[in-house]
Amino acid sequence: MADAPRPLKIWAVSDGRAGIEAQALGLAEAVARRRPAHITVKRIGWTAGLGRLPWALIPPWARTGDPIAPPYPDIWIAAGRATLALSTRMLAWSGGKTFVVQTQNPRALLDRFDLVIPPEHDELAGPNVFPILGAPNRLSAATLGVELARFETRIAPLPHPRVAVIIGGRSKAHRLPPDRARAIAQAVEGAVRKAGGSVLVSYTRRTPAHARASMTAILSALPGIVWDGNGENPYFAFLAAADAILVTEDSTNLATDAAATGAPVFVLPMAGRSAKLQRFHEHLERRGLARPFAGSLTGPRHTPLAETDRAAAELLRRYDGQP
């Protein structure tokens, strides 16, 4: 009997921020669902603010965080600007033995990577580019089931429709000022109260304190759970339990996660505008995966978005050298 193939060695590399790490780790986990693999999470940074420089000007010796040294992995999956000074050198450091994958648009020479997986709305093209709708994530049917079971005793008594309300915050293009935060909360409160349902509210690290406080004051009057950031994070459980999901427009990750559940998704408007994110939301709407929130919580379920699995299949096809 032939020996079983050696598990792939995969490094998931980022600066450790939750949304960025989820892209690298989610793609690594999707690969591991298809082929035996050992995944190592690597979190890196740069001294003295050097990470803000263009990647070609950052000296590798200025790196902080987890060690990046031989033996290098079979597959390197990285996400975020902070990793570029390493990702762009990994093919050379490994003598071409490491398959180098970068999510997002690296804004670097594409020949430094074996595969680049950007969002479609970045409109990046090339022979080693595989665009996907949204961003890689860690959601799967199994993950949602496990996470829902962990919080089932708290969620099960809540009335339907259960509405997950996922609130982002300040970004390069969007803001959540006090008046907008109150307006969103009041609109959600009115819709949920009219439907006789409940809320499952989750904020992100980018949600301003004033917005968190004012929205909590309004939404906590409804049946439901408003996660205060303490204890275990019920984010995935909220998505799994939701009959409808409301998500702010500022984040590709949040909308991708919501669309991966199959529940109706409604996008909440913020202050500010991003042409790229507007294209992303238009793509979601054209495929029937999301629509602007207009006061209604009803809509058809859809086939869950599974772009991470599609990207993982493409990654392994190229890793194996298949045409």
TL;DR?
By secondary structure, the protein is α/β, with parallel strands linked by helices. The protein has helices at residues 18-32, 84-93, 141-150, 152-155, 178-195, 209-219, 235-241, 252-259, 275-286, 307-319; strands spanning 8-14, 37-46, 63-65, 75-78, 99-103, 115-117, 162-167, 174-175, 198-203, 224-226, 244-248, 265-268, 271-272, 291-292.
Provide an overview of this structure:
This protein has 323 residues and is α/β, with parallel strands linked by helices. The chain folds into two domains: 8-133 and 307-319, Rossmann fold (3-Layer(aba) Sandwich), CATH 3.40.50; 141-292, Rossmann fold. Helix content is 33%, strand content 19%. The protein has ten helices and 14 strands. It has a six-stranded mixed β-sheet, sandwiched between helices. α1 crosses α10 (307-319) and α5 packs parallel to α6. The radius of gyration is 21 Å and the shape is globular.
Task: Describe the secondary structure blueprint for this structure.
Layout: E1 8-14, H1 18-32, E2 37-46, E3 63-65, E4 75-78, H2 84-93, E5 99-103, E6 115-117, H3 141-150, H4 152-155, E7 162-167, E8 174-175, H5 178-195, E9 198-203, H6 209-219, E10 224-226, H7 235-241, E11 244-248, H8 252-259, E12 265-268, E13 271-272, H9 275-286, E14 291-292, H10 307-319
Parallel strand pairs: 1-2, 1-4, 4-5, 5-6, 7-9, 7-11, 9-10, 11-12, 12-14
Antiparallel strand pairs: 2-3, 8-13
Helix pairs in contact: 1-10, 3-7, 5-6
Biggest sheet overview: 6 strands, mixed
Portion in helices: 25-40%
Order of helices and strands: EHEEEHEEHHEEHEHEHEHEEHEH
Shape by Cα distribution: globular
The CATH class assignment of the largest domain is Alpha Beta
Radius of gyration: 21 Å
**Termini, distance in Å?**
29 Å
Q: Give the helix/strand class.
A: alpha/beta
Would you identify the CATH H-level superfamily of the largest domain? Glycogen Phosphorylase B
Sheet with the most strands: spatial strand order: 3-2-1-4-5-6
**CATH topology description of the largest domain:** Rossmann fold
Strand content: 15-25%
> Would you tell me the overall average pLDDT?
94
Count the DSSP helices: 10
Low-confidence stretches: none
Total separate domains: 2
Architecture of the largest domain, according to CATH?
3-Layer(aba) Sandwich
Query: Care to count the β-strands?
Result: 14
